[in-house]
Amino acid sequence: MLLFAPKAPDDIKRYTWSVPVVAGDSLVSYSIASASGVTIDADSRNENDVVMYLSGGTASTTGTIKLSGATSQGEQFEETIYIPILPADNAVGHAETAQTIIEFALRPVTGITGTATSDELDDGLEWLNGLLSFWRATGADVGASLPLTLSTVIYAPDEWILAIKNNLRVMVAEQYGRTVSPTTGFMASKGLQAIKNARLGDAEPGTYY
Questions:
Q1: Does residue 63 share a domain with residue 130?
Q2: pTM (2 decimals)?
């Protein structure tokens, strides 16, 4: 039995089942026998991990997922995973589309009331995907389903959304030869570090975001 980190009913979060294979062995297949109380939006195998994006759930209940896996050396694993669904008054954060985040980052280029061109939005989307992919690889995964489209909704705590916006603004400014204020640079740096610190706190056995 594994207890995953809780989620709010409106969250879409990335969770990972790390199959405990022995040295020299590897996961070759997996299956999901059932999912109750949560919705599996997408699932895939990443080496010895089963990665799932989960949505839905009813406040103050517990979702359950039953999985199995087989290894190259013939071992069979079965696991039941429990995902607590937070009460409605404990839900944190909000949702923003990739486009609204990109438009925020482009304001030093377009101005406060300006409208980004389709080319600028496409470039911003490429940079945002690259930024979040790099963060995922370096311990700052925000749980977004990659690759993003302009309409993809990112669910995260308020401070994480702000960190994404400020870091993307720094990146966009560099690409266009602009500068950002020291405050923006400071908030970008501190916001990224806060996400990494939160992820370190999540790294308990059987608990994943």
A1: no
A2: 0.58
- Please check whether residues 78 and 119 belong to one and the same domain: no
Strand partners for 155: 95
| pLDDT, tens digit only, all 209 positions of the chain | 788 888 888 888 889 999 999 999 999 999 999 999 999 999 999 999 999 999 999 988 899 999 999 999 999 999 999 998 877 655 555 678 999 999 999 988 888 777 889 999 999 999 999 999 999 999 898 888 889 999 988 877 888 899 999 999 999 999 999 888 898 999 999 999 999 888 775 543 333 33
DSSP-based three-state secondary structure for 90: helix
Spatial distance between the Cα atoms of 146 and 68, rounded to a whole number of angstroms:
25
Amino acid at 180: V
Residue 152: which domain range?
Answer: 94-199
CATH code at position 27? 2.60.40.1220
Name the amino acid, one letter, at 122: D
